[in-house]
Amino acid sequence: MQSHDQDALFGAEKKDIPLDFSTMSYTHLVEILVRYLQQKRYVVVLDDVWDIDLWKQIHVAFPDGRNGSRVMLATRKEDVASFSFGVEKLSSPC
């Protein structure tokens, strides 16, 4: 992550920027991300997703503030592509 991005992310928390994200706990990282994204409109692209479990592990980090935010996944795996990820499928009019 670039320095100005880190400043914006941690500025929202009003704490010092850690030297290394790898030293932070998963829970702490999720809390920071949720607070940062809560009132924002964002687009996240996850490329080359191989496992449905990835979404199950990270979806809590993306708040649904009804701001028009989107998370897009790209995959070559049919089971991942056909999984609903919590999105309701529309019924066909036929």
From TrEMBL:
Name of this chain's protein: Putative P-loop containing nucleoside triphosphate hydrolase
GO MF: ADP binding; hydrolase activity
Record domain NB-ARC: where: 22-84
Entry-linked InterPro entries: NB-ARC (IPR002182), P-loop_NTPase (IPR027417)
Alphabetical UniProt keywords: Hydrolase
Source species of the chain: Rosa chinensis
